[in-house]
Specification:
By secondary structure, this protein is an alpha+beta fold. It has four domains: 231 residues, Heat Shock Protein 90, CATH 3.30.565; 144 residues, Ribosomal Protein S5, domain 2; 94 residues, Rossmann fold, CATH 3.40.50; 125 residues, Heat shock protein 90, C-terminal domain (Four Helix Bundle (Hemerythrin (Met), subunit A), Up-down Bundle), CATH 1.20.120.790. It is 35% helix and 19% strand. The protein contains 21 helices and 22 strands. The strands form four sheets. Strands 1-6-5-4-7-3-2-8-9 form a nine-stranded mixed β-sheet, with helices on one face. A five-stranded mixed β-sheet has the order 10-11-14-12-13, with helices on both faces. The longest helix is centred in the middle third of the chain and has 24 residues.
Length: 633
């Protein structure tokens, strides 16, 4: 079963990329207890290579050479302790071999390596998501040989790659009559159990039954047999998504997900749907259980596997789902697109737009179904992917009504940091005449929870949503209302609790008798505050900062500044609580310098409580020290 090829020339020894060395070491140790997945990964790679040849042969049928029947072959030799996985797919050139088997040419490699922790189950998931299935061969093999020739190249341009996975690999030119790739594993002594007919067939049926190409094995025959029997297909060799849903078992759906997503964990949910009529396509969408390490890299590969009339076209076709659903995995198979469609053409195709709209709604319906049917499982999903879903209302206004029920928040109802309350939960608890949904944004949950802006809401028993993700202000800027109620930032504009709160005349913030203090503060703080006014937000604090109706909040200002964009000029509104002893002390202060110091300290305290950075921390400390010394004398 070893590769038979004449002359090997132009051999050279090369070093693995540093990240590959780390990956190999971590993989062998992290995945040791789940070693059997090596076969799934190698067959998956063979399937991808065969898919690519079938697609390229549409435009260039000569690539099929004299062997048009595409298949994957698995063989073994128990005496030699070897397993071979072969395909007659697209194959690799010498340059392909060095690039694909010696390096990890993918953005985020360093981030991926640092994400590995040594925790076996977690690292196993990450390794699969990174898509480095070939290296899983070294979990069971002490040495791996690869024999390959790219379709269309002459037989003398075959390549032999070999490595023990320790740090170097060898590459040599060979003559190879067959196109495609053979991966030959020389098993470690403690892995020779896999060189067994029953074991291999069981693993193929378990992990690769859905592969659309036949996975062939020769049956074991007695030594005295007159002739070797023909190979037979171990798998069903029918694309899973083309089968009726009633004929597909749940375990088959789970294994197909692991095949296309390179994930070692089961999906949370899936949706298999066939559309017939004006447009004809089949989709199979999966909801992963865990976020990939590169979820926040907007340039990372994402999207669905695209097939046209069951012919593989491309991986990561991101035109079929919006960016905020980039975690969805799956397949779309269209009967209406051209076989020679490109990424550029997909962006201009009305059929693609229609499928994208339908798949987006289907994905959101999956999530809403999960939220209704299994709140605990949905909470797990939200903890992993919630921040991405928050991009939805801005990116997809058309589906805001579907996205809003999916959002989860922390609120003053529980005062717990876990974001597990929906907008529907909020409405169930709102006061009878309450006509707004109130929220506050801050840099952290603690800052939001302890904000002085919440004092009057706590006093009156009104729930407030507590937001602390950097994206939250952007989210709320696009999610204007829910179920007819406006969402309102408690720091913005003058406080209006609506018809739900009757106010007596004594409750109204009245600047009349306090106007001299307001005017004096306004003059003193004119460089720092847009205006000064008496507040009815506060019951315990002396002062707070409020935003104008159209002012940009601190979260968005920092995001713009960090991205190098110009931040619009604006000053906060300084609001004072005239019932507070500090404010009363300030009103009675006759010394102008001491008044200025007290005003600045009060403003700086309000800034800190609002999560802002002080413009001049040194001055704040000096003023505070002067005032403390005066009090002590």
């Amino acid at each position: 079963m070893t590769e038979t090829s004449s002359q090997a020339t132009a051999g050279e020894t090369l070093g693995f990329q540093a990240e590959v060395k780390q990956l190999l070491h971590l993989m062998i140790h992290s995945l040791y207890s789940n070693r059997e997945i090596f076969l799934r990964e190698l067959i998956s790679n063979a399937s991808d290579a065969t898919d690519k040849l079938r697609f390229q042969a549409i435009a260039a049928p000569e690539l099929l050479e004299s062997n048009p029947d595409l298949a994957i072959r698995v063989a073994f030799d128990p005496e030699a302790g070897t397993i071979s996985v072969s395909d007659n797919g697209i194959g690799m050139s010498r340059e392909d071999v060095i690039a694909q088997l010696g390096t990890i040419a993918r953005s985020g490699t360093a981030e991926f390596i640092t994400s590995l922790t040594g925790d076996e189950s977690r690292d196993a998931n990450l390794i699969g998501q990174f898509g480095v299935g070939f290296y899983s061969a070294f979990i069971v093999a002490k040495r791996v040989d690869v024999f390959t020739r790219r379709a269309g190249l002459p037989v003398e341009q075959g390549v032999h790659w070999s490595s023990d996975g320790e740090g170097e690999f060898q590459v040599a030119d060979i003559e190879r009559a067959d196109r495609g790739t053979q991966v030959l594993l020389h098993l470690r002594d403690d892995a020779r159990e896999f060189a067994d007919d029953f074991r291999l067939r069981s693993l193929i049926r378990k992990y690769s039954d859905h592969i659309a190409f036949p996975v062939l094995m020769a049956p074991v025959v007695p030594d005295d047999a007159e002739e070797a029997p023909a190979e037979e297909a171990v798998n069903t060799a029918q694309a899973l998504w083309t089968r009726p849903r009633t004929e597909v078992q749940d375990d088959e759906y789970r294994e197909f997900y692991k095949h296309i997503a390179h994930d070692f964990e089961d999906p949370l949910l899936w949706s298999h749907n066939k559309v017939e009529g004006k447009r004809e396509y089949t989709s199979l969408l999966y909801l992963p259980g865990r976020a990939p390490f590169d979820l926040w890299n907007r340039e990372a590969p994402r999207g669905l596997k695209l097939y046209v009339q069951r012919v593989f076209i491309m991986d990561n076709a991101d035109q079929f789902l919006p960016l905020y659903l980039r975690f969805i995995r799956g397949v779309v198979d269209s009967s209406d697109l051209s076989l020679n469609v490109s990424r550029e053409l997909l962006q201009q195709d009305a059929t693609v737009d229609a499928i994208r709209s339908a798949l987006t709604k289907r994905a959101l319906d999956m999530l809403n179904k999960l939220a209704k049917d299994d709140a605990e499982k949905y909470q797990g999903f939200w903890n992993e992917f919630g921040r991405v879903i928050k991009e939805g209302p801005a990116e997809d206004p058309e589906n805001q009504a579907r996205i809003a029920p999916l959002l989860r928040f922390a609120t003053t109802h529980t005062d717990q940091e876990t974001a597990d309350q929906s907008l529907a939960d909020y409405l169930e608890r709102k006061q009878a005449e309450q006509d707004k949904i109130y929220y506050i944004t801050a840099d952290s949950f603690g800052a939001a929870k302890s904000s002085p802006h919440l004092e009057v809401f706590r006093a009156k028993g009104i729930e407030v949503i507590l937001l602390s993700d950097p994206i939250d202000e952007w989210l709320m800027g696009h999610l204007a209302e829910y179920e007819g109620l406006a969402l309102h930032d408690v720091r913005r504009g003058e406080l209006d609790l609506g018809g739900e709160q009757d106010k007596s005349e004594d409750d109204q913030a009245d600047a009349g008798e306090h106007q001299p203090l307001v005017d004096r503060l306004g003059e003193c703080l004119k460089e720092r505050a847009a205006t000064v006014r008496v507040t009815d937000r506060l019951t315990e604090s002396a002062a707070c900062l409020a935003l104008g109706e159209h002012d940009m909040g601190e979260q968005m200002r920092r995001i713009l500044a960090a991205s190098g964009q110009q931040v619009p000029d604006s000053k906060p509104i300084f609001e004072i609580n005239p019932e507070h002893p500090l404010v009363q002390r300030l009103a009675a202060e006759a010394d102008d310098q001491r008044f200025a110091d007290l005003a600045d300290v009060l403003f700086d305290q309000a800034s800190l409580a609002d999560g802002r950075q002080l413009q001049d921390p040194g001055q704040f400390v000096q003023r505070l020290n002067r005032l403390l010394l005066e009090l002590s004398t």
